[in-house]
C-alpha cells in the first residue's frame, strides 16, 4: 500500500545554510497569528467562566450574602438593591456584554469581599507567586531531567530500577503533605530554613519551591525517560553506535535530541499547573500570592476574583505554549514555524 | 560444509500448516484482556497494589470492621498519644483514634473519588465518542471547547466549580469530575479515531458490516483499554485532587474525617505530634501508588516487560 | 529449477582458504536473549569465515538469528549473553576478539574496521539531524580532522555513495529524502571510517525492486573499488545469488549449509536450503517453462469487471490514478504490478468501492459501482471481498479466528449462529487451518496462519471477486509460496476471480493470467503473463524485470 508514497513524492526543498530559520517576517506573522489565537482562547475562557459563574441557579449576590452556607442577614429589599448596584438584575446577555466590554478595557470588576479592583489584586499578588513558580520550574527541570538521564544511562540494573521507581512515587504524593513533611523534617528536626510565616527571602523560598516542583519533576522524569528509552530503542541510535560513537555521545547527542521533544511540550502544559499547585503550597507555607487570593476567594465565593484567577491561568497557559512552540523548531528542525505542530495542544 | 545433523524444519507436525508456525508468532503475545494480564502475571508490585486496593475497599465499605474505636468521640485521657499497639496511628488533640478516623475517612474520600472518575469518564467518554465518530464540524467544535477547558489547570477549574456549588464532599467530587471531562474526551476521541482507521475496521466494512456493527463489535472493545487505563490513572489523580480540596477546607464540614482535612487538622500539632500529618498522607500515597500500578496492568502499551 | 550457467568467481571453487587468511572468523557463536519464559538461544554455535575481498551472504528467514549474528559481530548485543569467539584480523597481524575487547577498542572497530549498513533506512537515521552532520560525525569519530574538514569529507562520501549534488543533500533532513537516498546516506556513513569490512543487514529490503537493484549495483562497485569484504545479510535468496561469492544458510540459530554460491544454489545439501530454493520465485528463469496454468474456469461470458478511464485525483502534483482501463474475466487473475506510489492500490480500492473515483466508471457484472451508495453498495459487497497486505492489522486483535471468518456471514444474516460457526470452521479447514485454531486470537497465530484466516474470511460469502492487496509481501518466502499455492487452488475449485496487487514480478508470474504494469497512475503495458515475461515491450517493464533478484547471476559475473 502507499507506504512509501510520501517518501517518493516528497518535495525536496532547499534548506538554508546552517539554520533552517525562516525569515523574520514569517516569525512576526506567526507570532501575531498565535497571539490572535490566544485572544480567542481567552475570550472563550472568559465566556465559559461567565456562563459557569454567573448563569448557574445561584446568583452572585445571594452567594455573596450567604458565603460559606450561612444565613443571609440582608432583607430582600437590600438584596435587590445590591443586585441593581452590581448590575445583576439585567438580562444575562446584557450583563455578559457589559462585563466583556469592561474586560476589554482591562477592568475585570471588583472583588466582592475587599472592594479592590480584581486586576489590582492580581497584580499585587503576582510577583511572589511568579518567583515561587519560576524557582519550582527550574528545580523541576533540573531534578526531573537528571533522574531521567541517569535512569536511562546507568548500567547498574539496581540503580536503574530505583531511579525508574521514583517518578510514580513523586506523582503519588499530595503536595500539601510533602510541604508539611518537609517543614517537619527540615525546619523542626534539623532547624534549617524555618519557612513558615510568609517570608519571601531566598531561604524562605527553598522549601515551597521544592514542594511545588516535586510533582512536576516526577512528570518530567517520567516523560523524558520514556522519550529517551524510545529513542534508544530506535534503529538510528544503533547506527550511531555502529559508527563508533561512545555510549555517552549516543545518549546525549542522539537520543536526547529527539527524546526531549515530548518533554518540552509537557513543560508548556505544566507551567499552568504550577499556578494551581501554588494554591496549596502558599496555603501550607502561609505565603502571600495568587494562591492565597484564590483560596480565600473560593472560600468567600468571590466570583469576580475567581474569574480573574481563572483568566490569569489561561493567559499563563497560552503564553507558555506559545513560547514552547517558538522554541520547538530550534530543537526539532523538522518543525517549521507556521506549520501545524503535530499533536499540538491549544488552538 | 553442510551440517546434515540439524533436524529438518519440514519435519511432520500435527498442525496442517506447520512451517507457518515457524515464523514469529506475532508481537502481541501479551494477554488480550486486562483481567487476563492481572491473572496471568501478578508480579510482586501488582500483588501488593491489589492488596492495598482490596484493603481500601474494605475500609470504605465496612469501616467499623477495620477500626477498634469511634472516629468522632475522643478519650480526653488519651490526647496526642503517639502510634503504638493500642492506637496504631496514635490519637489527635481530642483523644480520637487516628487509625479509626483514617479508616472511616476512606469511605468519604473514596466515594468522592469514584463519583469524580465516573462522572469524568461518562461525560468525557460520550463527548469523545461523538467527536471521533461524527468528525467534521462537530469534532472541530467539541475539540476547540476541550482546548479551552484544558487551558485552565484542573485544580483551579474544580475550585471555580466549588465557588458556584458550595462546599461538601459531593460538590468536591462533582468539581473534580468536571475537571476530568476534557482529558477523557480527548483520549476517547483519539482511540476512536485510531481504531476506526484500522485496517480491520475497513476489512469489516468491506465485508459488508454496517457502521453500527463496526462500532459495537470493533471500535468500542478495541478503544476501551486505553480509556480504562486513563480511568485508573485518573482515579489516583482524583484521590489527590479530592484530598487537596479537602485540605483547603472545601470538603465535608468537621468533624467528618476526610483524608485531606485530617492532614489539615494535624497542622497545628506538627511540632509535637508528627503522626497526625504524616500517617494520613502516607495512606494517600499508598492509595495513589497502588492505583498507578493497577492502571499499568490495563494499558497494553506498558504491559510489555520493561 | 533451471540450472543457471555462469563463470565461477575465482575463489569459490577452491578449497576454503585457511582461517589464518580470514579477515573475520566467527567460532561457535552463541547468543542468548533473556525472555519472560527464560533464556532463548537466538544464535546457536555459528561458525563463519570472511576472506578479504569476498562477499558472504547470510541467508535465512525472519527469526533465524541472522541479524543477531550481525549485531554480535559489531559488539552490539546489548544485554544478551554472548559466547564463542569473534576474531577480527587487523592489517598488521593484530587480532581482536570482539567479545572480549574493551569498549574503547570496540569504538575503533565499529565504523573504523567494520562498517555497518542497517536495515530500514527510514528509521536508521537520526530524524532531527541533517544527514551531512551525521556522516561528518562518523568521519570525526575515526579521523583527526576539524569540523570543516569533516564536512568536506562527508560531502565527498555522499557523492561517492551515488547521491547527486551531495553538497545540497548534506543539508537535508532524513525525512526530506527518498528511501533509496537515505540508504545511500547510510552507505556513506558506513564507509566514513575507512573500514575493510562491511556488514549489511538487509540493506535493501525496504526499497522498491528497481531502487534495490541500483543500490546493490553501486555497493558492488564501491566494494570492488575499495577492495572491501562484505557480510550481506538477507532473507532473499535471489539477492544472495546475484551478489555473493559464498552463501551461508541459517535456520533456527544454526548455519545449516555453507559453501560457494553455485554449490549451494545448484547442489543444495540440506533439505531446508532446498525448501528455500523451491519457494524462491525469482530464481526460475522467467522465460522458461512455467508451472502450467490450466484455465478450467475460462469462459466466453461477459467480463466480471470492466474499468473505464478511471481517474482518482487527491490533489497532488499528478493524479494517483490517471486514466486506467482494465478488464477482468470471471475466474481469472488480473495482476496489477508496479512500484510503490504507482497507483495500483488506489485502483484496486476504487474497483471495490472503498475509494470514490474522481471520474470514470467501474462496471461490476454490468452494474456501475461508482453510482452506488449506502445500502445498495453494501449489498453488492457480498460479491467482492478483500485480502490485505498485513494480516496482523487486518484482523481485529480481540476477535477469534472463527468469529472473524463468520463476520461477513453475520453481516448479511446468513444462517444462524451455530451454522455460521460450523461454516467458519469448515472454511478454516479449507484454507488449511486446524479446528484448534478456531478460537485463537491474532496474537496467538503466525503471519502465515493469519493470512489464511483473512483468506477464509474473504471467501465466506462465496464472492465472485477477491482483491488481494500485496497478500504475501509481509510473509517469509516459504510461507509466501504456500499462500500463493492456496490461492491458486481455491481459484481452481471455487472459480473466484482475483485482482492481485503486487510489486513483485516473481510473485505475479506465479499467479496471474493477465498482467497490467502500472507506472505513475497509468497502465503502461498489459499482456498475458507469458507474453509479458517473454517479450516485454515497455521500457519500465524491462526495468522491473531486470530488478528481479536472482536474475543477475544468469546474465553477468559478480565483480570481484
Task: Write up what this structure looks like.
Chain A is mostly helical and 347 residues long. Chain A has helices at 5-9, 24-54, 60-65, 76-86, 92-104, 118-153, 157-172, 175-189, 202-233, 235-242, 247-259, 261-284, 290-299, 303-331. Chain A is built from 14 helices and no strands. In chain A, helix 2 (24-54) packs antiparallel against helix 14 and helix 8 (175-189) crosses helix 12 (261-284). The relative contact order of chain A is 0.13. The model of chain A is unreliable at 1-21 and 340-347 (pLDDT under 50). Chain B is mostly helical. Chain B contains eleven helices and no strands. In chain B, helix 10 runs antiparallel to helix 11 (275-298). With 560 residues, chain C is an alpha/beta fold. Chain C has three domains: 22-113 and 199-278, 3-Layer(aba) Sandwich (Rossmann fold), CATH 3.40.50.300; 121-194, no CATH class; 305-554, 3-Layer(aba) Sandwich (Rossmann fold), CATH 3.40.50. Helices cover 37% and strands 23% of the residues of chain C. In chain C, a hairpin with a 2-residue loop joins strand 1 and strand 2 (38-50). Chains in contact: A-B, A-C, B-C. Chain C: It comes from Nocardiopsis coralli. Chain C: One of its GO terms (molecular function) is ATP binding. Chain C: Its main location: membrane. Chain C: Residues 280-303 are annotated as: Disordered.
Q: What secondary-structure arrangement, pairings included, does this model have?
A:
The complex is a heterotrimer of chains A (347), B (306) and C (560).
Chain A: H1 5-9, H2 24-54, H3 60-65, H4 76-86, H5 92-104, H6 118-153, H7 157-172, H8 175-189, H9 202-233, H10 235-242, H11 247-259, H12 261-284, H13 290-299, H14 303-331
Chain B: H1 34-40, H2 44-61, H3 63-66, H4 98-134, H5 136-150, H6 154-165, H7 169-196, H8 199-206, H9 211-247, H10 259-266, H11 275-298
Helix pairs in contact in B: 2-4, 2-11, 4-5, 4-7, 4-9, 5-7, 6-7, 7-9, 8-9, 9-10, 9-11, 10-11
Chain C: E1 24-35, E2 38-50, E3 55-59, H1 66-73, E4 81-89, E5 95-97, H2 103-112, E6 114-117, H3 121-124, H4 131-142, H5 147-160, H6 166-169, H7 179-191, E7 197-201, H8 209-226, E8 229-234, H9 237-243, E9 246-251, E10 254-260, H10 261-266, H11 271-279, E11 305-312, E12 321-328, E13 333-337, H12 344-351, E14 359-364, E15 367-368, H13 374-380, E16 384-387, H14 391-394, H15 401-411, H16 417-430, H17 447-459, E17 465-469, H18 477-494, E18 497-502, H19 505-511, E19 514-519, E20 522-528, H20 529-534, H21 539-546, H22 552-555
Parallel strand pairs in C: 3-8, 3-9, 6-7, 7-8, 13-18, 13-19, 16-17, 17-18
Antiparallel strand pairs in C: 1-2, 1-4, 4-5, 9-10, 11-12, 11-14, 14-15, 19-20
